[in-house]
Design a protein that fits this description.
219 residues; alpha/beta; Rossmann fold; 2 domains; five-stranded parallel sheet
C-alpha cells in the first residue's frame, strides 16, 4: 500500500502561504466560456464539467497538447483526455472545443483566443479553470495576451492537504508552487504577463522553500 504523502511540518507555513497567494478563487458568475487549461491534473476537467452543469458557462474550450510530465498519463493529449472526461460526466460533446497544440500557459490563452475567433464565437468573459496554484499566473498571462477579456479564475475547491493527497506527490506540488511563484516575478519582465503584487511574507516563503531545495521548477 502506498504511503500517504504528507506535507513536511518544517515547510507547512511557507507552502500554505504560497498556496493561498496563488489561489484567487473569484466569486462565480455567468461568463461566455470556460477555458480548461491542460496539465497533469485531471481535476481541471472535473471542475470544468461541474461548473458547466452549474450553469456558469454554456461552452467549454479545453486547451493543451502534452508536456513530458503528461505524455504517459494523457497519451492522446491533455485537451483530448479532458474532453473525454467531461463527456463522460454528462457534458454534451457539441459544446466542447479542443485546442491541441499549446504547450504552455501563454499558448493556452493565445491559441484558445484564435480558435474562438476562427469559429466566429464572440467572447467577452471567461472562466479560467486551472490547477489551484496556477490561478494567479493564468490570470496575469490572460490579462497580457487577451486585454479586455473579463476573467474569473477557478480550481477544484480542495484544501491543500487533500490536493496533495490526490496528486500523490508532495515534493512535486511544492516544486510547482515555487516555480509558479518565480514566474509571477519573472514573466512580466519578459513580456509574458502583467505584474502582480507580491507581499513581503510571500517573498519570504518563496525564499524559504528555495533554500530548502525545492528548485526543480525554477527557470
Amino acid at each position: 500500500m502506498s504511503a500517504v504523502p504528507i506535507l513536511p511540518e518544517a515547510h507547512r507555513s511557507a507552502v500554505e502561504t504560497l498556496w493561498d497567494y496563488h489561489r484567487l478563487d473569484h466569486p462565480l458568475r455567468p461568463v461566455d466560456v470556460g477555458i480548461g487549461l491542460g496539465s497533469h491534473d485531471l481535476g481541471v476537467a472535473v471542475h470544468t464539467a461541474e461548473l458547466f452543469h452549474r450553469g456558469v458557462f454554456p461552452r467549454i474550450v479545453f486547451t493543451g497538447a502534452n508536456a513530458p510530465t503528461t505524455l504517459a498519463r494523457f497519451p492522446r493529449g491533455e485537451a483530448v483526455h479532458y474532453r473525454e472526461h467531461a463527456i463522460a460526466s454528462g457534458v454534451p460533446s457539441e459544446v466542447i472545443l479542443t485546442e491541441t497544440e499549446a504547450t504552455n500557459t501563454g499558448q493556452n490563452i493565445a491559441l484558445t483566443r484564435e480558435l474562438l475567433a476562427a469559429r466566429g464565437i464572440e467572447v467577452r468573459s471567461a472562466s479560467l479553470i486551472s490547477r489551484p496554484y496556477q490561478q494567479r499566473r493564468a490570470y496575469a498571462t490572460a490579462k497580457k495576451l487577451w486585454p479586455g477579456l473579463d476573467i474569473i479564475c477557478a480550481s477544484s475547491p480542495l484544501p491543500l492537504d487533500e490536493y496533495i493527497h490526490g496528486i500523490g506527490d508532495v515534493t512535486r506540488v511544492i516544486n510547482m508552487l515555487v516555480g509558479d511563484t518565480q514566474r509571477i516575478i519573472e514573466y512580466p519582465k519578459r513580456g509574458y504577463a502583467v505584474p502582480q503584487h507580491m507581499p513581503a511574507h510571500v517573498q519570504a516563503a518563496f525564499r524559504h522553500l528555495v533554500a530548502a531545495g525545492y528548485t526543480d521548477r525554477l527557470l
